[in-house]
Amino acid sequence: MSVLAVTGTDTGVGKTVVTAALAAGVIARGETVAVYKPTQAGLDDGRGDVDVVRELAGVTTAVEGIRLAHPMAPVAAARRAGTTLPELAEHVARVADLAADHDHVLVEGAGGLLVELDGHGRTLADLAAALSAPAVVVCRSGLGTLNHTALTTEALTRRGIALAGLVIGSWPAAPSEVERSNRAELDRSPAGLLGALPEGAGRLDPARFRAEVQLRCP
Fold first, then answer.
1. Closest Cα to residue 143, out of 192, 180, 193, 198?
2. Tens of pLDDT, residues 40-98
3. Within a domain: residue 23?
4. How many domains are there within the chain?
5. Which one of 86, 145, 173, 175 is most buried, by most CB atoms within 10 A?
6. 109: closest CA among 138, 85, 79, 89?
7. Is residue 180 exposed (0-12), middle (13-18) or buried (19+ Cβ within 10 Å)?
8. How far is CA 5 from the centre of its chain?
9. Domain annotation covers residue 217
10. Is 16 annotated as a binding residue?
11. 195 is in an annotated binding site
């Protein structure tokens, strides 16, 4: 792992907490990591995703390409704010600068893989391709996740983006039969599971998060 893209099958699947877990794992190995969020659209109590990652993982460098107030698709949020989204080349340059000073860079997308990040239809998939970065796909545990995960991984494969692995973003304390079956199927997929984060992991105290929430780093 040098530059790694973190995407998801949808919005709200746990990309930010997975990014924090991956970052914490890198730090625990004694290596340096930076986190880059190309577009932050919408805030939770005034905090963006990089703020959450910084707190949970203890990351020193966590930056955004642009922060938008409204929780909408980036293009719509920028239009409503009367501003212009950064160009893909700007994101590539920012990540390159971070990579020059850190062992690893994690790039967390907005929403799903093909959500537009600029005004020209370019997406996280385009950014990952431009960076030659493999991708981790964060998925749900419940019904429908096998299809959504297959669609996302197929889109990555068609664009020549390597798949670094899958992560279930929220694993319930009492999983249903469907969820247990889904987990087994995801683990048997060619990419395999890097892990499954316990439900509510993002609400843990940072020290406990770093000690208990672990993923197999790609």
1. 180
2. 999 878 899 999 999 999 999 999 999 999 999 999 999 999 999 999 999 999 999 99
3. yes
4. 1
5. 145
6. 138
7. exposed
8. 6
9. no
10. yes
11. no
Please check whether residue 96 lies inside any domain of the structure.
Answer: yes
| Count of other CB atoms within 10 angstroms of residue 87 | 15
150 found inside a domain: yes
* Residues labelled as active-site residues: 37
Q: How far apart are CA 126 and CA 98, in angstroms?
A: 19
Q: How confident is the model at residue 1 (pLDDT cuts 50, 70, 90)?
A: low
Q: What is the pTM for the complete model shown?
A: 0.95
- 41: CATH: 3.40.50.300
Residue 174, classified by CB atoms within 10 Å of its CB into exposed (0-12), middle (13-18) or buried (19+), is exposed
Strand partners, 44: 47
Q: Residue 48 annotated as binding? A: no
- 3-state SS, residue 134: coil
Q: Check whether 12 is labelled as a binding-site residue.
A: yes
